[in-house]
Amino acid sequence: MTTSRVATFHPAWGAVAMTASGIALVSLLDPWAGSGVDDVVGAVTLVLALVIAVATSVVYIVRMTAHREAVVDDLANPVMGAMTAAWPASLLIAALAVLQAGVIDLVDGTTALWVALVFFVPGLVGTLIVGVAFYTRVIGSTDVPLQTVSGNWFVPVVPLVLVPSILVRTEVLGGPVDPASLAFVAVATWGIGFGLFLLLAAIVGGRLLIASPPAPHAAPTWWIWLAPIGAGGLGVISISRLSAVSEAWPDATSAAFLLAAMLWGLGLWWAVFAGIIISRQRRELHFQLPVWGFGFPTAAWVALTVELARHWELGWLAVSGAVLWAALIVAFAAAIVMTVVRMRSGAMFGR
Predict the structure, then answer these.
(1) Where are the chain's structural domains?
(2) pLDDT per residue as tens digits for the range 287-322
(3) Can you tell me the distance from the alpha carbon of 97 to that of 343, in angstroms, rounded to the nearest whole number?
(4) φ, ψ for residue 284, nearest 5 deg
C-alpha cells in the first residue's frame, strides 16, 4: 500500500473486520443446530476475520506513527472520528469469536484464551481512548453540523457492551480471574456502553426528527442501531451467567432473558423501520466502503436471535435465526467480491 493511501486510509475499513468477526461469532453459536456446517463456516470466517484484523491493525499502527496529524484530524471530524473506533472494536469482536471457538472445542481452550488476550487488551484500551478523544471533541461543540450527527456515533460505545460476552467465555475456559470480579467488571463496562448508547440515542434520534435525513451513501447509519441493541442483549445474558456463577445474583438468568427479549423486539421494530427508510433511497445507493457498516449490526442481532431461540425453545425463532444467518453469509460473500473488484480499480481507497 502506498504512503498516500496509508495517510488517507478510511476509518471504515475497521467495519470490514467487525463484520467478518461478527459472522464468525454467529456461525460458532450453532445457528443451524446439529448440522456441523455452521462450524465449518465459523472456522473459515474466523481465520479470515483474524487475517483482516491483523492487516488493518498494521496499517492503522503505521498511520498513527507516520501520519499522526491525519489521525488527530479524523478524531476531530464528526463523521470520521466515530468511525475510527471501528478498528479497536474489530479487535474486541475478534477476541469474542476466538473465545467462542474455544468454548465449543474448535480450538484448544488455553490457546483461545491467549489469542483472545492479544486482541482484547488493545481493543478495549483503544476503544476507551478513541471514545473519549472523539466525544470530548464533538459533544457541546458549536462547530458540528447537525447533518453529521448520525448512528455512526454509536461505534465507540458498541464494543463496551460486548465485554460481558468476552468475560463469561473467559470464565468458562478457566481464566485466571475470579467470577465475582469478572461479573463486576462485566456490569460496569456494560453500564458504560449501554448508558452512553441511551444518551446518544436521544441525541441522534432528535437530530433525525428536526433535520434533513442522512444522505443515501450514509444508509448504514440507520441500520447501525441494531449493533448496540443486539450486542447489548448478548451482554445482559452474559452478565446473568457470570452473576449466577459468582452467586452475586443467582436468579439473574430469567430476568436477563426477559430484558434481552425486549431488546430483540426493539431491534426487530427498528430493522423494519430502517429498512423502509433505506428502501426509499435504494436507487441512489452504490457499493462503497461504508456499506460494510450493515454487517456487524446484523450479525449482533442475529446472534441475539440464536441465543434467545435456544433459551426459549422456540422452533420458529430458531428457524428464523438460521435463515438470517444464511442470508448474512451470502451478503458477506457478495460484499467480499465487490470489495476486491473495487480495490483492484482503486475505487475502495477514496474518502
Answers:
(1) 3-346
(2) 889 899 999 999 999 999 999 999 999 999 999 999
(3) 27
(4) -100, 0
